[in-house]
Design goal:
By secondary structure, this protein is an alpha+beta fold. It contains three helices and seven strands. It has two domains: 60 residues; 91 residues, TATA-Binding Protein.
């Protein structure tokens, strides 16, 4: 069988009997169509399997285990914070301009701003770990709009709120911590009239 005759045979065209010297007998056109369709379907299925396998490999290879590679290194507190019971992470300094503090009677008002290069998530985890060690009880832990972390604590009758956000600094950004403590001191019972001294009635009729 010549090359042109062999090509015509595989295209399903009729080949003269004297030229069809192939050992494989000619098949009906309907069977050839079924075989061609089956081969095409198997090819598509194999392509989809390969695609799914490649995608699964990429996803599994790029994902990080949950809880790892997100928060970064744990921050440590400075040895001498500006306020004794308000920890400050290492690498953070107070912004003196807007920071104020005052005490009156048994109460105090503190509004401090600190800035550093650690991530907001690192700073949030720092205060979640360190504040209870200073006697503060966590009340609120949430993320507000624009990626601001809000933490609220209480110690006795004294509330403390900590806001953690990203702020521009020079040509880049820094993490800013705002600590707000406002208390009036422990509550005291209201003062009433002084009791009259007791008098002795012994010997009186």
């Amino acid at each position: 069988m010549t090359g042109s005759t062999r090509a015509a045979y595989w295209r399903g065209q009729k080949v003269p009997a004297d030229q069809n010297d192939m050992t494989r007998p000619a098949q009906p056109a309907s069977r050839r169509r079924r075989l061609t369709g089956k081969r095409a379907w198997l090819g598509v299925l194999a392509g989809r399997v390969v695609t799914v396998a490649l995608c699964a490999g990429l996803i599994c290879g790029c994902q990080q285990p949950a809880g790892q590679g997100q928060a970064g290194a744990r921050l440590r507190p400075v040895a001498y914070p500006y306020v004794e019971d308000i920890p400050v992470p290492e690498g953070f300094v107070r912004v003196d301009g807007p920071s104020v503090s005052d005490s009156f009677g048994q109460g105090r008002y503190i509004e401090h701003y600190y800035r550093g290069k650690a991530s907001r998530l690192q700073v949030r985890d720092f205060y979640l770990e360190q504040m209870p060690q200073k006697g503060w009880k966590l009340l609120v832990n949430r993320e507000a709009m624009e990626g601001v972390y809000i933490l609220c604590f209480r110690k006795g009758s004294e509330p403390c709120r900590i806001d953690i956000r990203r702020v521009p600094s020079g040509l880049g950004y820094q993490t800013q911590v705002r600590v707000l403590v406002m208390s009036t001191g422990p509550s005291r019972p209201a003062e009433g009239p002084s009791p009259k001294p007791a008098t002795s009635t012994a010997g009186q009729p």
